[in-house]
Structure formats: C-alpha cells, structure tokens
Hints:
The complex is a heterodimer. Chain A is mainly alpha-helical. Chain A has a single domain, classed as Helix Hairpins. In chain A, 77% of the residues lie in helices and 0% in strands. Chain B contains 7 helices and 2 strands; from the N terminus they run αααααααββ.
Amino acid sequence: MTDNTTAYVILSAILFTIGTIGVLTRRNAIVVFMCVELMLNAANLALVAFSRMHGNLDGQVTAFFVMVVAAAEVVVGLAIIMTIFRTRNTASVDEPRMLKW
Amino acid sequence: MSFVILASIMVIAALGLLFARKPVHAALSLAVVMIGLAMVYAMLEAPFLFAVQIVVYTGAILMLFLFVIMLVGVDTSDKLKETIAGQKVLAVSLGVGLGATLIAGIGQASIATMRGLASANEGGNVQRLADLLFSRYVIAFEATSALLITAAIGAMVLAHRERIDPKQSQTDLAQQRVADYAKSGKHLGPLPPPGTFARHNSNDTPALLPDGSQSTKSVPAILAGGRTEEGEDA
C-alpha cells in the first residue's frame, strides 16, 4: 500500500468530495469555512503523494505554500464572519440575502 | 496496513465534520482529520510537513476557528428549514457525482508507483526544502510573506470599530456609577469574578452567593449565551 500512489490520491479525492458536500449543504458560516479548509488539506495530500511519486520535493514546497495561503485566507475570512456577526447577530449563510442593509 | 487504518479514521472524522450539529464538534472532527493527515505526511517521507501541519494547521488555524466559534456563539446550530426548495438533495447528489467522477478518473489513470524520496531527501528533508525554497521558489516565498502581512492588516481593518460617541473618562464613569446607585441601587463596585472551587475552576463556573444560589453576574455574558454589551471590546 505504501508504494501505491493511487491509494493516496483516492483518499484525497474522497476528502475533497466530503468537503464539497459540506460547503454546499451546511448553513453555519464557520462550518462552511471549515469544509473549505478540508478541501485545501485534501489538495495538500495529493501534492505530497505526487511529490513522493516523482522523487523530488517540488510537491512538498507547493503544499507548504498552500498552507501559508490557507492561513492568510482563514485570517481574513474569519474577520469577515466576525464583522457580519456583529451587524446581523447571526452566523447563518442564509441571512445575508440583500445587498442593502 | 497503517495507511488503511489512518484513511478510515480520517474519512469517518470528515463525515463527522459533515454531520456534526454543533460547530465545536465539527472543529474537533477537523482536528482529527488534520492530525491524521500529519501522520500520512510522516509516512510519505515529509517530516517537515508533518511538523508544520500540526503546528500551523491544527495548532494555529483550528485554534482561530475555535476562538471565533467562542465569540460568535457556541450554541448556534444549523436551521433545518431550507430557503431554496430541494437544494440540499441536489447538492448531495451532485457532490456524490463529483466524487464518483474523481474516483473513476483516478482509477482509470495509470499513476506510476512511488519512486521514494531517498535521494531527494539526502542531507535532510528540511535542508533540501530550504534549498528549493530559497532558489527556485524565492519569488513565491516573498509574495506569500507580503500576502501574510496584507492578511494581518486586513483583519485589523475589518475588526476595527470606529468610536462614534466621545470616550468617557474615569471621572465620567465614576459619576455615572454613583448616579446609577442613587437612582436604582445598582451595586457600585466591580462585577463578581467566576467561581473557584475544588473541582471546577473556569471562566464559565458561576460564583456562589451567601445563600448558596448561583450569581448570574459572575459569568461573562458572551459565555452565558448573550452578546457583549455595546461599547465593550469583544
């Protein structure tokens, strides 16, 4: 199993699918954001698996950059959720339905 | 064998993230997935990513999520009523379709077996990663550092609240407190701190009044389920 790249890539695909379904079905903005993080982690797994398949470290460096970008995205995204919560007092994604406040 | 065990734990935890009703349970399931991923990175000869995954992803990003869950509301659960009819059924079916397409495509592609990183990791994984990071990927490195600075400043700008009314000085606050006491008998001193007992000692443990009842004023309002008062820092 440890030499079979396909197993890791299929695990990455399964995690990505679960994340996608979570983004589409959950109503709480924070849980939607966590599912986006799950999708990013699945992509990271595929990158590291392919890095080992090719025998060089480019995939691992790319996975490292994905982690950095995900960290920056979480910072700004959670700040946005906090700001929306302050004005509307709800964290549901169904509530912000009109552009005008 | 260990990969099969890890993979099953990760998929079960990911499904837990999908079906958890409280956001805190979802965050904990995500923590299980991330630590499982860290172990998979260790299996894939990526020790640096194993450490960074635990420290940065689980230790920093997930903690940020937990802080925001604490501030936004621990009790909020998803409303089951749909705003668009049939959206959940369509979403789940399309998501499962996406998964089936991905797995079918990957299964049909002939991906080579792993060559292993024994030669690429010569002299240490961290050292070889550093070689790559500061030679071939140095522009991306500088760009992501600029991105991190921008994200931090952006978060500060978003969280900043402008002061609309003038700031009350200490004299004003003291006079306000005495006026409140004269008008309604409201207690002049500070609020009571949370309870410190033999078995419970946390911010949401209420203090006990002399007659044995719990003091609702000793627990911060946001931990008891309410919002912070206007004018106070969150």
